[in-house]
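# step 3/5: fold
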Amino acid sequence: MKESTSREKVLKAVRSALIHKSEADFSTADSKAEIYASPPEGESLEILFAKNFSALTGNFIFCEKREDFAKSLAHIIMERQWDNIYCADQPLQDLLKRNGIAFSSSDSELLNANIGITSCEYLIARTGSIMVSSRLNAGRRLPVYSNVHIVVANLSQLVYNLADGYNLIQQKYGGNFPSQITVITGPSQTADIEKTLVKGAHGPKELFLFLMDEHERN
């Protein structure tokens, strides 16, 4: 029967390709080859991360001390009139309490969270990404539900590429590997609908990273 539309031709070609699959030869592939270049000479991981993270419209804030984090956060909260702040991380909760920053932490308040504050696993300098996992106190939900996601990290959590982060997570958790690992690269945005850029379609509209010059989280 003669095909009447270009759509039918395309579908026929797809069906044919699925039936008559070609076998790709990967026998000579080197699975251990280094696919990432080394860090740029003379540039620190924190500077590289800050550049790449900011290029993705992330808000990068460097703090020498934890007290600086609390002061900066309190100023932003007042300036933007934020409310419904949620935090499930105990060390961060203690820090917020000491500085008089109100927040909620019960599961019943999670869906109402406008601002979510979490820690992270590692920071990927090469891509300006933040690696989180289901083993963190925030779990799977908070980094997705809140309109604004605030991440608090230390210099010791900086690595160059994704492979470094995954290797360290493997060492950290061993046999209790997280059921989910997520790499956050900039605020949520999409242009799938009529080529119009929409922020916050699949997660937070804004992403903040407070990087502290301390080696311990507690």
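# step 4/5: annotate
Residues 123 and 158 are 5 Å apart (CA to CA).
# step 5/5: archive (pending)
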